[in-house]
C-alpha cells in the first residue's frame, strides 16, 4: 500500500478510470454484438440501426480516450465491411 498522499490519490483515480473505461468498453462491445446478431439473422433494417448505434458508441469511446483513434477506425471499418456484404 502506498504511503505518500499523491500515490494514494493516484490509486483511487486509476480505480475510477478503470471502472469508467470498463463500462464504456462493455457497452461498446454489446452494441457491436447486436450488429453481428442482426447481420447473422439477416434483418437488414435492424442491422442498419444497430450499426449506427455501434458506430456512435465506438466514436464516443474513442473521444473519451478508451480506444485509440486508429483502433476505433479499424472497428468501424470492419463493421461497415460486414454490413456491405
Task: Summarize the structure in words.
The structure is a single chain. The chain has 85 residues and is mostly helical. It has one domain: Methane Monooxygenase Hydroxylase, Chain G, domain 1, CATH 1.20.58. It is built from 3 helices and no strands. The chain has helices at 5-41, 44-63, 69-84. Helix 1 packs antiparallel against helix 2 and helix 2 (44-63) runs antiparallel to helix 3. The longest helix has 37 residues, at 5-41. The chain starts with a helix and ends with a helix. The mean pLDDT is 95.
What structural keywords apply?
85 residues, Methane Monooxygenase Hydroxylase, Chain G, domain 1, 3 helices
CATH class: Mainly Alpha
| Total strands | 0
CATH architecture: Up-down Bundle
The CATH homologous superfamily name equals Ribosomal protein S20
- Given helix and strand content, the structural type is mainly alpha
Unreliable stretches, pLDDT < 50, 5 or more residues?
none
Q: Secondary-structure element order, as H and E? A: HHH
Task: Calculate the terminal CA-CA distance, rounded to whole Å.
Answer: 53 Å
Number of helical stretches of at least 4 residues: 3
Q: How much helicity do the residues have?
A: over 70%
- Radius of gyration, CA atoms, in whole angstroms: 17 Å
According to CATH, the fold-level topology is Methane Monooxygenase Hydroxylase, Chain G, domain 1
Amino acid at each position: 500500500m502506498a504511503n505518500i498522499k499523491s500515490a494514494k490519490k493516484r490509486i483511487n483515480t486509476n480505480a475510477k478510470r478503470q471502472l469508467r473505461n470498463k463500462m464504456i468498453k462493455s457497452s461498446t462491445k454489446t452494441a457491436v454484438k447486436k450488429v453481428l446478431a442482426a447481420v447473422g439473422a439477416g434483418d437488414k433494417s435492424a442491422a442498419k440501426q444497430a450499426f449506427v448505434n455501434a458506430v456512435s458508441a465506438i466514436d464516443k469511446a474513442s473521444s473519451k480516450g478508451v480506444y485509440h483513434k486508429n483502433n476505433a477506425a479499424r472497428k468501424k471499418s470492419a463493421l461497415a465491411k460486414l454490413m456491405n456484404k
